[in-house]
Every structure is written in C-alpha cells, then in structure tokens.
Amino acid sequence: MRRVRLRKRPRPRAGCAGLSETRSVRPRLGRDGFTLIELMMGSFVLSVSLLGMFGMMAASFGMSRSAREITVAKNAAMRKLEEIRDLARTNASQVVATYGANSNARHFDVDTLNAATNDADGKPGEVTVSPSSFGFELLDVVVSVQWQSGAGPKTFELRSRVFGR
Model-level pTM? Predict the structure, then answer.
C-alpha cells in the first residue's frame, strides 16, 4: 500500500476567518471611513429619534401637571366634605345655614389652582348642600372644584349624603 502525503493548508490568521495567509486583509486606500451619504443618513436617524424623545417628554410633563392638579382638587374636596361631616354630626341645620345657597362660605379657595375664567367669585371650590328628599337629617352634599388648566377648564365633583343630628 502506498502512502499518500497530504499538504497542509496555511491556517487563517486570527480575526480574518476564511482568509489565507497569502491574501492581504488591508483595505484599499481611501476606503477606511464613512461616506457623506452614510453620515447624513445617520444624523437624520439620530435627529428624528431625538425629536420623538423630546415630544414624549413634553407630553409626559403635561400629563404629570394634570395629574397633580386633579390630586390637589380631589384632596381639597375631600377636606371640605370632612369639614361638613364634622359640622353635621353636631348640628345639621347649621350645615344648611353655613353652606346654603345665599352663603359666602359655600365658595372656597384651593391652593395652586386658578379659578375658571367664567367663575364670578374667583374661587375654584364650591359647596352645594340641600336637604335630602328622604328627610331633613339626611343632606345631599356636592363639593365641586372648577379650575383653569393649561389644557383648558377642568372640573372635579364629589357627591355624598351626610347624616346630621
């Protein structure tokens, strides 16, 4: 039997998979950078993505402000309702006299909120108390807050029935 002697192939150099040692891996002169069109396309993609990101940030700030205003209005309405409930526990007729239709106490101010432009008294909060149809001890209470936001006029309303003594 005759032995066949195999020739070894030259091994490719590290980082140049599939290329033999005899082949040059140097780029041709003048081809080692980006072309003007590639730079323009890259800057266009970057500017479009930055504009989208800034638009989303602006919308996020607007929604955050709106959520803060709603929270302030809700907390002010809850405080006023608790004040009415405390007063009704002692004397329900006093609640109707204090927050009746002709009373100045029915309008209240809310910190950091501007009254709506069509509001005559200049205060964003208003309380309406009326005896319920079920009896005088049961009062229908509506606490509403109307304010002027950056996005236009907004309203928060809280309705409850209060049992007085």
Answer: 0.68
Closest CA to 96 of 125, 130, 142, 144: 130
- Helical spans, DSSP H, in 13-117: 36-90, 92-98
Convert the pLDDT of each residue in 133-144 to its tens digit. 776 678 889 999
User: Is residue 125 a contact partner of residue 99, using CB atoms and an 8 Å limit?
Assistant: no
Closest CA to 161 of 94, 98, 81, 96: 81
- Amino acid identity of residue 159, one-letter, is R
Look up residue 48 and give its two tokens: 């479009």
d(CA 21, CA 12): 6
Q: What angle do CA 88, 91, 97 make, to 5 degrees?
A: 85
For residue 90, which of 165, 26, 148, 11 has the smallest C-alpha distance? 165
The pLDDT value recorded for residue 50 is: 96
